[in-house]
Design a protein that fits this description.
Shape: globular
Number of strands: 11
Radius of gyration: 17 Å
Strand content: 15-25%
Helix content: 25-40%
Largest sheet: 9 strands, mixed
Distance between the termini: 31 Å
Length: 253
């Protein structure tokens, strides 16, 4: 959801975008694929959720690097998709089950024709078959925290980005923060979303005062102070989080 009004994004993200580089000590930094750049598109949710799936697989020793452009192209076949191409991590999970996914090397730009097949280890798969191998149906759970709705029930997020009307398990914010920290420390991929941006959480750090931060893999390229990473304080997580996606295994453990 990047746009040309960078100042607006910086204000919206608060702790995610530091005005000046500061020193962080990494406590956990999980494996990740190379940082990508969403350019001027508003598709950060695609990059964030795919990066989450990639980190999850890397934690198993299974390397996958997935193409965001394939999903961006698939949006053209979705009658409910907004022209802005905005969405949520849960949207991505629905779309890859329907349209499939391919590797990044097979589709490195939006102008590349979408491949019908994926070739891996001498075998041929449809894009849908490949998608089920990297993200099984129901593997991920979508979470939110809304104190005005019943906890431990599925609720709607009534925003235009949730155009597929996905439901989110509503849990207390303290629980959401604790489960997210535990998942990251156990090397699971986690997708984080505010009302204005989405990023993958790839680690945990603290600053020189001891304040804790999540290490975020952003999709704005590598020419910013932390070379594609950003730092979201636990306090800002508490204030800004709209939704989180992680595997059901990560949630249970």
């Amino acid at each position: 959801m990047k746009n040309t009004l960078f100042v607006f994004c910086a204000v919206l993200l608060l702790g995610c975008v530091q005005q000046e580089p500061k020193h962080f000590t990494h406590e956990v930094l999980n494996r990740m694929t190379p940082v990508k750049d969403q350019g001027k598109s508003q598709t950060c949710w695609i990059y964030a959720m795919l990066a989450t799936i990639e980190t999850e697989h890397l934690s198993w020793g299974d390397s996958v690097n997935l193409s965001p452009y394939y999903i961006e192209k698939a949006l053209e076949r979705e009658p409910k998709a907004p022209e802005s191409k905005r969405g949520m991590g849960a949207t991505l999970l629905r779309l890859i089950q329907k349209h499939g996914i391919v590797g990044y090397d097979a589709m490195r730009s939006i102008d590349t024709p979408a491949p019908r097949f994926v070739f891996m280890l001498g075998a041929e798969y449809t894009a849908q078959e490949f998608a089920r191998s990297v993200c099984k149906p129901g593997e991920y759970i979508a979470l939110t925290s809304n104190s005005s709705e019943p906890y431990y029930k599925e609720v709607d997020i009534s925003l235009p980005d949730n155009w597929l009307q996905d439901r989110f398990l509503n849990i207390p914010m303290d629980s959401l923060l604790a489960k997210t920290e535990r998942a990251v420390r156990k090397h699971h991929g986690v997708c984080w979303e505010s009302k204005g941006h989405a990023m993958a959480i790839v680690g945990i750090a603290h600053d020189d005062t001891g304040e804790k931060y999540f290490i975020m893999k952003n999709s704005w390229g590598t020419d910013r102070p932390y070379k594609g990473l950003d730092y979201l304080s636990f306090e800002d997580f508490h204030e800004q989080t709209l939704a989180v996606e992680m595997t059901r295994e990560a949630y249970r453990n």
